[in-house]
Amino acid sequence: MTRMFHVILALFWLPVLNAQYGGSESSTTTTTPSSTSQSSSSSSSSSSKTVQSVDVGETGFTFKPDTLTVSPGNKVEFHFYPGNHSVAQASFANPCHPSSDTGIFSGFVAPTSGESDTVFTLTVNDTNPIWLYCAQLGHCQAGMVAVINPP
Ligand SMILES: [Cu+2]
């Protein structure tokens, strides 16, 4: 009875141990070519995903940076500063206007001082250009635009 139990226990743990060993080995030796062109902040052990940050309205009517290259599957975090700004998606042909009813829109974020706790996170699904602007009255016209994966 006890021997049988130990055999079952051994059979159960063998693949688990193999998987753990294999997993840790591959994460240390595998290099992903796509991540070499990006500056990945602190190296996280298991994931090649990167998150880039954009400051919205920290220095006037600006997205900073205003041009980003983001690989599919990676994320962009928008951090809002005072000025009641937003992040909205336009088309190239019609800037400063919503690209569609289902386009990206963060809503308006209006911290009274400093950086808002509200962070808008956008996941990039492909390499198509994403044209962005601030939908607050006059801000886009003042140059508050950005682009992800410019053509
Ligand atoms: Cu704005």
TrEMBL record:
It comes from the Eukaryota. Residues 24-54 are annotated as: Disordered. The lineage of its organism: Eukaryota, Fungi, Dikarya, Ascomycota, Pezizomycotina. It comes from Penicillium canariense. This is Cupredoxin. Residues 24-50 have a biased composition (Low complexity). InterPro entries: Cupredoxin, Ser-rich/MCO-related. Gene3D superfamilies: Cupredoxins - blue copper proteins (2.60.40.420). Residues 1-19 form the signal peptide. Keywords: Signal.
